[in-house]
């Protein structure tokens, strides 16, 4: 899976720490998501969707090898 969390975060001018605090996770979690080392839970993805005011599919995309 690919994501554009870093881009979305930059649009809102948020640091990893600020984003983490807004959605109730650690900065390390945000770092791992941005580096594609961690796939967030549905709840976390929905929190990001609400914060970014965009559908989840706008910032998370499946790769061909995810099928």
Automatic annotation (TrEMBL):
KW Methyltransferase (keyword) present: no
A molecular function (GO) term: DNA binding
Residue ranges annotated for the HTH cro/C1-type domain, each copy included: 5-59
InterPro entries: Cro/C1-type_HTH, Lambda_DNA-bd_dom_sf
Keywords noted in UniProt: DNA-binding
Name the UniProt record assigns to this protein: Helix-turn-helix domain-containing protein
